[in-house]
Design goal:
Radius of gyration of chain A: 24 Å
Oligomer: heterodimer
CATH architecture of chain A: Orthogonal Bundle
Strand content of chain A: under 5%
Radius of gyration of chain B: 18 Å
Shape of chain A: globular
Number of helices of chain B: 10
Structural class of chain A: mainly alpha
CATH superfamily of chain B: P-loop containing nucleotide triphosphate hydrolases
Structural class of chain B: alpha/beta
Order of helices and strands of chain B: EEEHEEHEHHHHEHEHEEHH
Chain lengths: 298, 253
């Protein structure tokens, strides 16, 4: 190849590089703009019809639903985080290459593609009808956990697998047991990635509506002076029915006659929900960053 | 001069599934000496090294026959728990593998898993181990910094310090300098010389000059067999086996 042809080839390669880079920028930019427009639309809509009373704990306000959402997410994380991380550790570190493992993997994959309404109806059948209880937050949390378990499990497994083998060798070479190596070196090393999985799982809880319809229920009657945990109006009783923000939005938009201002309230609820998710996710990341910094040295 | 035998290996066979990686290896590792294992890639020298603190337990499908005795009395595969064994026979790996933790936490890792909690005691161990690894002066002002920020040579000496912190009798080194530049390599070699006063060292190396420079004994491995074993100067000056001669004169491998 003479030098002229070579130059031509380089020119062509540079051109291709430029074109592809531009295309990728355009795609990335498109999604960014889409996201900003969507968020801005929801926030502005919410602000337009805003009245302070919408944030109250009265029948017009969304205070109770806001609390229910947080409470349900916390409950579902208490259920799904230990099981999900445990399953991830099992699959990455202990599971043999056999039929049982294959079955578990297929189950997790199918679980992750279940439509949430199916999970909701399953929850209604198992957690409500078969237990004979009324709609309750705990049943809702279980339903949401079913939806979020696969993502926590898969992230944990992937995170552990992506670590260099030398961490485990180094740890066990110093006389650590397998379990000690996992808890003292491997899990801390992939902590940020696992937290990402947990944030996604929490997002599921914030945004879920269909799975909660017949599990957590659509009504909320709370007495904020009642702290008897067994009472159905006690806010902290996990076995009371509790409507979350996402479900409330759906109810307001489909059964609008409940309130004269139901459209405005739904818009405010949507804005609050989006802010809540954002704050939660940023907060969780900041906390992770601080912990990681402390654990890994500056 | 009579020497104590730290580890004696008798008729050791090792199989990966149906592949025999070590064939009837017999070897005696002398206490407070450096024993080098040389041979071409895939000859079984690293595999052999790992049998001495049972790191090959971590791999699947490994089967071992024969006997390895520690201090002439403890059967490594029968009489001792792998975790206890690894505290007495420590290992330094080919790639420096500090944990993603601070320098201090790396060195204190071993003592901590052995249940030492006292800050004063840990401080003392960290300082002593880093001094032994000849890296205390470089690192003493940055103990809280991440170990991942160190250079390759520093990381490897940190890993040696981390192993020394559990006070083993034997140090196994699996090509500890193959990922390092020449200056770091020579500092690790000097360090090995100092450490043999107090430790027994077995080192796998690709580099024959390195074996000549630092070791007292050398074993030559080929295709899973230990072909020749002897004093380093004898083995390199007058190899008894023609295969050894061909290897050390660079005619294959």
């Amino acid at each position: 190849m003479n030098s002229e042809q070579f130059q031509k080839k380089i020119q062509a390669a540079k051109k291709t590089d430029k074109v592809v880079t531009t295309i990728l920028y355009v795609i990335g930019g498109f999604f960014l703009v889409l996201l900003i427009v969507l968020a801005a639309y929801i926030l502005i809509k919410g602000a337009m019809g805003f009245k302070p009373s919408y944030l109250s704990f009265t029948s017009e306000g969304i205070g109770n639903q806001f609390f229910n959402t947080l409470y349900l997410v916390v409950l579902s994380l208490i259920i799904s985080v230990p099981i999900g991380i445990g399953a991830g550790i099992y699959l990455a570190e202990y599971a043999g290459d056999n039929k049982l493992t294959a079955v578990i993997r297929i189950s997790i994959e199918s679980l992750s593609s279940l439509p949430s309404i199916v999970v909701g109806l399953f929850g209604y059948l198992v957690f409500i009808l078969m237990t004979g209880m009324d709609w309750n937050l705990f049943a809702g949390a279980l339903a949401v956990s079913i939806l979020s378990l696969p993502s926590i499990t898969t992230t944990t497994e992937d995170a552990l697998r992506s670590l260099p083998k030398s961490y485990k060798q180094g740890s066990m070479g110093l006389g650590a047991s397998h379990w000690k190596a996992i808890t003292s070196v491997l899990l801390p090393a992939c902590f940020p990635r696992i937290i990402t999985g947990v944030i996604l799982a929490a997002g599921r809880g914030f945004g879920e509506a269909a799975a909660l319809l017949y599990t957590a229920g659509q009504s909320t009657v709370l007495n904020w002076h009642n702290w008897n945990l067994t009472s159905p109006t006690c806010p902290l009783n996990p076995f009371r029915s509790g409507e979350t923000l996402a479900l409330h939005i759906w109810v307001l938009r489909t059964e609008g006659s409940l309130h004269a201002n139901s459209t405005d309230i739904a818009n405010v609820a949507a804005a609050v929900l989006i802010i809540l998710t954002l704050v939660f996710s940023l907060g969780a990341r900041q906390i992770t960053r601080n912990i990681t910094k402390k654990a890994t040295g500056e | 001069m009579s020497e104590n035998i730290k580890i004696s290996v008798k008729d050791l066979d090792l199989y990966y599934g149906s592949f025999q990686a070590l064939k009837k290896v017999n070897l005696e590792v002398a206490e407070h000496k450096i024993t080098a294992l040389i041979g071409p890639s895939g000859c079984g020298k690293s595999t052999f090294l790992k049998t001495q603190n049972r790191m090959n337990d971590l791999e699947k499908g490994v089967k071992i026959e024969g006997q390895l005795l520690l201090d002439n009395k403890i059967d490594i595969y029968k009489d001792i728990d792998a975790m206890d064994l690894r505290k007495r026979v420590g290992m330094v790996f080919q790639q420096p593998n500090p944990f993603p933790k601070s320098i201090y936490d790396n060195v204190a890792y071993g003592p901590r898993i052995n249940g030492i909690k006292s800050k004063a005691k840990l401080d003392e161990i960290v300082e002593r181990s880093l001094k032994q690894a000849a890296i205390w002066d470089e690192l003493k002002d940055r103990l809280t910094k991440s170990a991942l920020g160190l250079s390759g040579g520093q990381q490897q000496r940190l890993c040696i310090a981390r192993t020394l912190a559990v006070e083993p009798d034997v140090l196994l080194m699996d090509e500890p300098t193959s990922a390092l530049d020449p200056i770091s390599t020579s500092s690790i070699e000097d360090l090995a010389q100092e450490l043999k006063e107090n430790y027994t060292i077995v080192i796998v190396t690709h580099n024959m000059q390195q074996a000549v420079r630092i070791s007292d004994y050398t074993a030559f491995f080929l295709l899973g067999e230990m072909v020749e074993f002897g004093k380093t100067e004898d083995l390199f000056a007058a190899p008894k086996d023609p295969r050894t001669e061909r290897y050390i004169t660079g005619r294959f491998g």
